[in-house]
Amino acid sequence: MSDIHINNAKVFKAFCDETRLMALELLQNGEKCACVLLEKVNVGQSTLSHHMKILVDSGVVNARKEGKWTYYSISAAGSENAARLLRQITTIEADAENNDNLGCCE
Amino acid sequence: MSDIHINNAKVFKAFCDETRLMALELLQNGEKCACVLLEKVNVGQSTLSHHMKILVDSGVVNARKEGKWTYYSISAAGSENAARLLRQITTIEADAENNDNLGCCE
DNA sequence: ATAACACATTGACTTTTTTCGATTTGATGG
DNA sequence: CCATCAAATCGAAAAAAGTCAATGTGTTAT
After folding, report:
1. Topology at the third CATH level for domain A3-90
2. Minimal CB count within 10 Å: which of A55, B34, B70, B104?
3. How confident is the model at residue B2 (pLDDT cuts 50, 70, 90)?
4. Given CB atoms, is A104 within the 8 Å cutoff of chain B?
5. Touching check for B38 and chain A: CB below 8 Å?
6. CA–CA dist B36, B27 (Å, integer)
7. B46 CA, C13 C1': separation in Å?
8. How far is B77 from chain A (nearest CA, A)?
9. Which nucleotides of C are covered by protein (CB under 7 A)?
10. Quick one: closest CA in B to A10, which residue?
């Protein structure tokens, strides 16, 4: 299987878990520190840290360290990238209807 | 965790696996029957069937049965829905910057 | 009717992901 | 220097997802 698909899959894994979707929802009305997210999301501290790392690695979330705290926020660029990727993956090519793509069976 | 997040996660799981991304890519230039996909994707028949079911259940792919064959195609409506959902999940609210959302730490 | 075909379903197994408690790292304050 | 706090990392256990071979189901051809 091609590498590009493995990488693309990685981006969408950001949105594949309820806890991460919950965290994203909390970030929609602004930057939050990890401790605030931890209060609202029903998982342990190490688990939240794990999920935030996946979100950050996917590019959808930014992390900013300040003193002992880490502030997270939604990345507009990362979100745009995910949206672009989704569009790219699901675009039906213009000549799709004219092709004889039925293959083995006709 | 709220039900809505579980369901949203389900839609994005369609894009979380390399084999499914490969299948989607093959469908971009038109409808294909399962046997054609099977030739190109490096998994067994039962595994492909499993993945196609996930794609169909997510709404991103249509299935059409004709005789002994099953034809799959990308669903424009399903793709649009996924794109809409992604936008909804990653939208930063207008007043996000003005909020005092830092919570415990200031 | 029967055989062959296309695909779905089942059940067992493997791999990956999620989760937690414990520990580590790094910053702050007394 | 030491205690405390926030968050990351580690290691192990549990849960979920992917995989395959075998079998079942429905269709077509002989």
Report:
1. Arc Repressor Mutant, subunit A (1.10.10)
2. B104
3. confident
4. yes
5. no
6. 10
7. 15
8. 10
9. 5-11, 17-22, 26-28
10. B16
CA B45, CA A51: separation in Å to the nearest integer? 34
| Per-residue CA distances from B26 to B52, B94, B101, B105 (Å) | 12, 39, 45, 50
Question: According to the model, what pLDDT value does residue A101 have?
Answer: 53
CB of A106 within 8 Å of a chain B CB? The answer is: no
Contact at 8 Å (CB) between B79 and B62?
no
Cα separation, A87 vs A68, in Å, equals: 39
Out of B89, B93, B102, whose CB is closest to A15? B89
First to last CA, chain B: 28
- Residue range B12-25, pLDDT digits in tens: 999 999 999 999 99
What residues have CB less than 8 Å from A5, skipping those under 6 apart? B18, B21, B22, B25
Q: Label residue A73 exposed, middle or buried (CB < 10 Å: 0-12, 13-18, 19+).
A: middle
Q: What is the pLDDT of residues A8-46, one digit of tens each?
A: 999 999 999 999 999 999 999 999 999 999 999 999 999
CB A104 within 8 A of CB B36: yes
